[in-house]
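Fold it.
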Amino acid sequence: MADFNQPSRRQMLGVTAGLTIAGALVATTPAQAKVNQSVVKYQHEPKGESKCENCMFFEPPSSCKNVEGEISPNGWCTMWKKKA
């Protein structure tokens, strides 16, 4: 008598193949390129209350998800978005 709670061999092979393909796609997808500081008019001083340390893209202590190079917590650029 067949056990209907167990996946069939065919189902397991399909799942394995799907996961293998998904893993290969993730591994070959290029990371998002960061932009040059001059492109986003980066400055080392805040613009009013807007500064990197309260931006959703800032990565302490001195990095940004979108802008290349060293980023000051007190800096600012045109990509600034307030943290939620």
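The mean pLDDT is 84.
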